[in-house]
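**User:** I keep going back and forth on a fold encoding question. It is easy to fool oneself when nobody else works the same problem. Could you pick a protein and write out its sequence and tokenised fold? Could you put it straight underneath, so I can go through it closely?

**Assistant:**
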Amino acid sequence: MLAIFNGQAFQLNFLIVYAPTSEIRSQEKEAFYESLTETYNKIRDRGPTIILGDFNVRILKPDDDDSTLIGKYLLNNTQEGPEHLPPKQEESRTIFIQTCEHNDWVIPQTFQKKQKHKQITHRSIGTGAFAPPWDSPSYAQLDYLLIPQRWRNLIKDVNARTDIAIDSDHALVWPSFTSN
């Protein structure tokens, strides 16, 4: 879904996405990210574009090569790195990160240290309401906000809102913007 907000200084574009799960065939995952890139390329010159949604990806921790797009503040309730992900999840992570690199997108919420309940965006089925203990493996960070490096300073903060009750296994991802 694309939402466009016309401001006095510039147009602000929001792409809201739902990425395929890791169990989907590789070709379908690649087609999703190719379509996302194509849509982004059509609107990228019209103003800042924020991509927000459920990417169905566990980043866990950045590789050394990812340091410009992924910060060091990630939810990692397993204390393991991406090399310990099942192969299909590792593939989804790789395609996601390659797409971010290709488009020069950063994940701003990973550059800000915060409490775990402000990082958690997903709870496993059967977990019940979002509630402590927050270090449970039943919680994950699967939803992200992406923004082109050029517009990174537009985002002041990004938090998961586990305190807002919605009928979903996902928490809202709540960005705050700078007013400059």
About this structure: The mean pLDDT is 89.
